[in-house]
């Protein structure tokens, strides 16, 4: 079992425990804010289960049916998770507004409630840090999404716990559904950010400007031996970064030499940008090579006509 699968399993276990704990305490105390956190943890659990299976599937090598690999299963997982979070937030707001309009009893056993919330916050903080660490190491959108859930849960649990403590001090029962609505607004923001992050790669959106700059710098490193490059395209599939470009070489260069240069570019990119697949189409510099950026190269047959 690889590191992605192990940490995804840890998230499933922790979310299962926290969901059960919050649900029992929420029903026992009658607190809608604790119940909202229980619903949030339920969504986190479902998301963790989806992430667990998605990282297992995305790690499979390319096959006949999926020649480009299974990386986008992680992106699909992230989209589903974001929609689940959105649905949970809407439900929390509806229930909270209903409680404000139709109060149905006092919130009891407040001490139990805020103790559970603070314990939940501490557990989620530790698990989310572990998830983020592995997500960055493996460049996993599914684990990053799961970590984002738990990070938000840290703040929302602290908010609910603080709200219950405030109710205990002030005896103002209406604060409970108000805190729940605030929690839901945080969750809505989380779902939007996650949806954007997960959905963009499904549309083959380009890599970040920082990553593209790294790619261009690596290619420029070999500018003394090629004439020009163009049609640079990038996209992402799960944790795999895909790069393709056209590299214009001197007309008299051997196939082996051109291939060796391409291998060096690919190796450098893979060392700087983990999980990178590079496809280079080699072209010969010809008389219509009017966009050659490097007329100083002695090997380029066009150099003499441009100087």
Automatic annotation (TrEMBL):
<keyword id="KW-0472">Membrane</keyword>
<dbReference type="InterPro" id="IPR036837">
    <property type="entry name" value="Cation_efflux_CTD_sf"/>
</dbReference>
<protein>
    <submittedName>
        <fullName>Ferrous-iron efflux pump FieF</fullName>
    </submittedName>
</protein>
<feature type="transmembrane region" description="Helical">
    <location>
        <begin position="7"/>
        <end position="28"/>
    </location>
</feature>
<dbReference type="GO" id="GO:0015341">
    <property type="term" value="F:zinc efflux antiporter activity"/>
</dbReference>
<keyword id="KW-0813">Transport</keyword>
<dbReference type="GO" id="GO:0015093">
    <property type="term" value="F:ferrous iron transmembrane transporter activity"/>
</dbReference>
<feature type="transmembrane region" description="Helical">
    <location>
        <begin position="76"/>
        <end position="94"/>
    </location>
</feature>
<dbReference type="InterPro" id="IPR058533">
    <property type="entry name" value="Cation_efflux_TM"/>
</dbReference>
<feature type="domain" description="Cation efflux protein cytoplasmic">
    <location>
        <begin position="207"/>
        <end position="285"/>
    </location>
</feature>
<dbReference type="InterPro" id="IPR002524">
    <property type="entry name" value="Cation_efflux"/>
</dbReference>
<dbReference type="InterPro" id="IPR050291">
    <property type="entry name" value="CDF_Transporter"/>
</dbReference>
<keyword id="KW-1133">Transmembrane helix</keyword>
<dbReference type="Pfam" id="PF01545">
    <property type="entry name" value="Cation_efflux"/>
</dbReference>
<dbReference type="GO" id="GO:0005886">
    <property type="term" value="C:plasma membrane"/>
</dbReference>
<comment type="similarity">
    <text>Belongs to the cation diffusion facilitator (CDF) transporter (TC 2.A.4) family.</text>
</comment>
<feature type="transmembrane region" description="Helical">
    <location>
        <begin position="34"/>
        <end position="55"/>
    </location>
</feature>
<dbReference type="Pfam" id="PF16916">
    <property type="entry name" value="ZT_dimer"/>
</dbReference>
<dbReference type="InterPro" id="IPR027469">
    <property type="entry name" value="Cation_efflux_TMD_sf"/>
</dbReference>
<feature type="transmembrane region" description="Helical">
    <location>
        <begin position="106"/>
        <end position="127"/>
    </location>
</feature>
<dbReference type="InterPro" id="IPR027470">
    <property type="entry name" value="Cation_efflux_CTD"/>
</dbReference>
<dbReference type="GO" id="GO:0006882">
    <property type="term" value="P:intracellular zinc ion homeostasis"/>
</dbReference>
<feature type="domain" description="Cation efflux protein transmembrane">
    <location>
        <begin position="10"/>
        <end position="202"/>
    </location>
</feature>
<keyword id="KW-0812">Transmembrane</keyword>
<dbReference type="GO" id="GO:0015086">
    <property type="term" value="F:cadmium ion transmembrane transporter activity"/>
</dbReference>
């Amino acid at each position: 079992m690889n590191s992605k699968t192990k940490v995804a399993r840890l998230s499933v276990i922790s979310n299962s425990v926290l969901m059960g704990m919050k649900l029992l305490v929420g029903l026992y105390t009658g607190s809608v804010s604790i119940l909202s956190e229980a619903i949030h943890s339920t969504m986190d659990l479902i998301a963790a289960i989806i992430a667990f299976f998605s990282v297992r599937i995305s790690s499979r090598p390319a096959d006949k049916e999926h020649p480009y690999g299974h990386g986008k299963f992680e992106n699909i997982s992230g989209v589903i998770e974001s929609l689940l979070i959105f649905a949970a937030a809407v439900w929390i707001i509806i229930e909270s507004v209903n409680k404000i309009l139709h109060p149905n009893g006092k919130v009891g056993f407040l001490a139990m409630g805020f103790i559970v919330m603070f314990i939940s916050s501490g557990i989620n903080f530790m698990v989310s840090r572990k998830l983020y660490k592995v997500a960055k190491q493996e460049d996993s959108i599914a684990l990053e999404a799961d970590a984002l859930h738990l990070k938000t849960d840290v703040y929302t649990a602290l908010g609910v716990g603080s709200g219950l403590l405030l109710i205990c001090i002030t005896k103002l029962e209406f604060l409970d559904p108000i805190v729940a609505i605030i929690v839901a607004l945080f969750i809505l923001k989380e779902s939007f950010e996650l949806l954007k992050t997960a959905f963009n790669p499904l549309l083959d959106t380009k890599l970040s400007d920082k990553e593209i700059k790294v790619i261009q710098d690596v290619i420029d490193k070999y500018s003394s031996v090629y004439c020009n490059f163009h049609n640079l395209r990038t996209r992402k599939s799960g944790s795999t970064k895909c790069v393709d470009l056209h590299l214009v070489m001197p007309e008299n260069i051997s196939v082996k030499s051109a291939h060796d240069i391409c291998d060096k570019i690919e190796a450098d990119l893979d060392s700087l940008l983990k999980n990178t697949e590079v496809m280079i189409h080699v072209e010969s510099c010809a008389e219509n090579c009017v966009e050659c950026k490097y007329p100083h190269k002695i090997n380029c047959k066009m150099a003499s006509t441009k100087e």
